[in-house]
Structure formats: structure tokens, C-alpha cells
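Follow-up to my post from last week.
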Amino acid sequence: MGLLSKKDAALIKDPLADNNPITIQVLGICSALAITAELEASIVMAISVLFVLGVGNVVISLMRNIIPSKIRIIVQLIVVATLVIIVDLVLKAFAYELSKTLSVFVGLIITNCIIMGRFEAFALGNGPWRSFLDGIGNAFGYGVILIIVGFFRELLGSGTLLGIPVLGDPIEKTGLYSIGYENNGFMLLSPMALIVVGIIIWVQRSRNKALIED
Amino acid sequence: MGLKSNLHKFKEKNKDKKWLPGFNAIFTFLYMPNETTHNGTHIKVADDLKRTMNTVIMALIPCLIFGMFNAGYQHHLALGEIGNASGFFDSAFWNWDNLVIGLWKVLPLVIVSYGVGLGIEFIFAILKGHEVEEGYLVTGMLVPLIVPIDTPLWMLAVAVAFGVVIGKEVFGGTGMNILNPALTIRAFLFFAYPTWMSGDKVWVHGAVERDQLIAAGENLDAISGETILGSLAQNKAAGYEIMDMFYGIIPGSVGETSTLLILLGGLFLIFTKIGSWRIMLSSVIGALVMGLIFNGVVSSGWITETSKFYGLMSTEFWQHLLIGGFAFGTVFMATDPVTASQTNKGKWIYGFLVGFISIMIRVFNPAYPEGVMLAILLMNVFAPTIDHYVVQGNVKKRMKRLKAKVA
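User reply:
Got it. Predicted complex:
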């Protein structure tokens, strides 16, 4: 990449695969389970986190030298809370139905460990540009997993993608040899999200043995 | 040169091939392998894993055959073609017409269950380079016995694939799984396709077709193949004689209806020392205790007839043993040596809680009338914890004794 130096490019690339916040660091699982039953909700959630983490990292990075370390968590919380409220209000104004689907989980972005984790681990010790790259890199890593899980859960659970039916009508009950599409209700329950995340982790680690820890 | 030595030579020649575990599985299925344990303590016993599995399958065969007859009998009875069978040996039950329907409906379930499950086991064995394990032999037989007769084959295949991969292979295969694979498969079906797994149409073959004929305008009576649990959960009368429940001449999953044959299978397992009598007995005790508590609540008048729990709560406590999948679960699933508790005291606690919780779920959650499945899966998760505390308790007791001796 000509635009970014090698070190900077790594900030974006690493969280996408080998240091993914969900599959490797196992952070942010709660929201990944709660809102991935529909692809649309997953995408909106991914964008929200992208905004909060990208802007938040820059803000914290700019303030990093004036924040007293004793109260840094409170300062970080205020920054996240402000950004989350902006996201929440924007959603309510322009996508009301969707914000009802996401319900408390937009507000709960505040408690998403990835965000506080990046503030603590990166933004407090790095300049704004690198912090921005790190923020959007991690948000992309989070969003990619969310979208993959949301894709499979909506496809197999409701037979739709982004609300558009793609797998046809459910089959009629005609006994043993009836064949065709039927909604898999289990896909819509949270345990299945955990299992899908687990399968992603499984696939990722069997492709890259270096990630396996004992 | 016999076939065996030829096969053995073939095996030696292809030692390094990737597909060898697949060949070995078939080879050891036909012949006793020459291989023995390489190191460590040796105990000379005749019952290896394969024999254990085969014994359980033998205990299951009567249930399977009965299930086939019952499938046909329920079908013909619902269509009004035959009268009620009276008693266990009635020829209205044991006849050729019933068996043909049963064979036609049940054998595909068995074939799909084994085909998909063993296929996955073979693939995993070859990929991971270990031998094919026999664990699926029993699971594959259990699965067709615990699903409704009209379960579509592809659903069964999907569920088996899920159960074997997520329930067993990810933990390391046979002997390492936390949850009973057969029940994982059943639970997957139950949560994924609830409308195909419950209600009054799925238990009797033909009920759905009849509904479609009625919808098309034909003047026929609808078939209601409600299970006893289903009826009771809706505060209706069970509608079957006690002895019919015991014999199993009632609608239900394929092989779980006949308490009589399950009892015989259970005795066979106890006699051959394959199944744990502690688990079976304590599970029955647990169920009876819970049933007695509910009966007590009803007779003390806390629950009125209008309550939605009344139907199941007022069921005589011992009748809970006869209806639903309780007997089948207790004898064939709860005793699974891999997922049950290992210590003797642990087995008592484990079994008791399986029975106790089964009846509790059955009564309090009419949406999941079959509590046995959920109770066993729950206790599977707790079994290692139970064992841990039993072992620690024993360690403490002996430490105390040691201290007393020293002092």
C-alpha cells in the first residue's frame, strides 16, 4: 500500500485476521450473540462501532497527555457515552424500526470491551493518525465477524437476506420424503450465534496453526 | 490363503495411505484386530468398546421392531381400518400390514442416521489420521428411535451432521464428548424445526396427508394423533388405558413408547453390566419423588382445575414413568458411560436429578413436554462437577482419618 507505511497498514490488517478482536481476543461476544439474527442489524451495528471506535480513538489520543491517569477510565467512558448517544439519536431519527430491533444494544456499545480495550491499550500511547487506523482496523475486524455470523443466521434461520426472501417458501408437511427449504428456528436463538462464532474460530485456527494456544 | 490374511497383507502394504483408518474400520468390524495395548497396565477382558456397543444395540432391537409395528398400527388405527388392539399379543397389532408400513417408514430413518453419521466419522478419522471409533454405532440406532415417524429425512441428516460434528467431533470424538450425541441431535431437531417435532400431527403417519385431503374439500375426519403428554399438558384426559401405556400401543416417537420392552432392555443392560443400575434406579426414584410432590400440591388444593399445570400435576406419580420418553431416556440415554457421572455416589446424585428435573420440566413447561431430553442434557453438563465434589469429599474424609491416626 502506497498510502500507508508497512507499520500503519499492519494496524488495519492485523485485527482483520490474526488478531481479530472476536475470534482471537474473544472480546465483544455479547453483542455478537445478541444482534446477529438479522444481517441488516449486524451491518448497522458494525458501522456504529466503526464510528464510535474510530472517532473515540482519535479523541482519546488527542487528549492522552492531559488526562490524569487516575481518572482516565471516567474520561474514556464519557467519550464513549457521548459518541454512543450520537449514534443512538441518529439511528432513532433516520432508521427508527432498526433502532427498535437493536434496542438496548446500541446503548450497550458503551460496555463493548473492544472499545475500552483499544482506548487503554492503544490510543493512550499513540498519536491520532495511528490511533485512528487502529480504531477502524479493530472495528472492521469486529464488523467482519458480525456480518459473517449475521449472514448465516439470517440466511438459514429466516431464509432471507436483508429482509428479502432468497430461499423460497417453507415446505409443506408431507412426511418422510418431503424435501425443500424450512426455516431453522435454532439459528435465531443466541446459542447458535455462539456456535457459528466457534466454527469461525475453528476454521481460522485450523488454517493458521500459529494461532492455536494450549 | 484365507480372506483375513489377504486383508491383513493388504493393510500392511498400504500402511502409509491416508484412507487406511477407513479400511481398518471395516476390517475390524469383520475380524478381531491383532493389535493389543502397547504399554502400561494390561487387563485381559473380552468386552472392548465394540462389544459394549453391540450389547446396547441388542437391547435396542426389540424397541426398534416394536416401533415398526406400532408405526403401522397407529397409521391403520387412525385411518379407521382396524380396531383397537386389546393387550400386548393382539393380532390387530402384530400383523404384516403394520410391519410393512413400519419398515417403509422406519428403515429409511435408520439408514440415513447411520449413513450420515458414519460418513462423518470416516471423514474425520481420515482427516485426523486416527482410527474410526465405534461410538456412533449406538447413537445411530438411538436417533431413529427418538424422532417422530414423519421426520423428513433431510432434516434428520442435517441434525445428525450437527450432532456428530458439534456435539462430538469438536471435543475429540468418542469418549471425549460432554453431551450425549443422540440427545444433541434430538435437541437440535426440536429447537430448529419445532413444528415438525411437536403437535398432534407428527406422531402418526398419515395425519398430515389426511389434513390436506380435508383442506382440499374431502369429507373425512381429521386425525388427531396427540401424545399422552400433549393431551395432559392441555388439561385433557390421557385417553389411553394404563396397560396400553405400559405395552406402548400409543402414539409417540418411533421406539420410545413401549415401557415393557424398554424395561426388558434395561434388565438386559444391567445383567450384562453395560448399563448402570444405580443411574436407572435413582432416576426412577427422582421422578417418583417429584411426581409425589406434585400430587401432594394438587391434593392440598393449591392448584385448581383451571390451572394450566393441573393436567400434568394431577397425573398419578407412577404414571409419569409410563408416558413420554422418560423410560427410554433413563435406560438408554442417561446411562451413557461417557456423559454420565463416573463415581458410584455421583451416579446416584446424577440419576436422581435426571428423574427429578425431567418431571419438573414436563409439568412446568408445556411448550417442552418432553423434559427428559433437556434434563439429561443439563445433567450431562453437571456430571463432571458432581464427580469432582464426590472425589474431593472422599479425599477429605481420608485425610481426616489419616490425621486422626497420626495424632
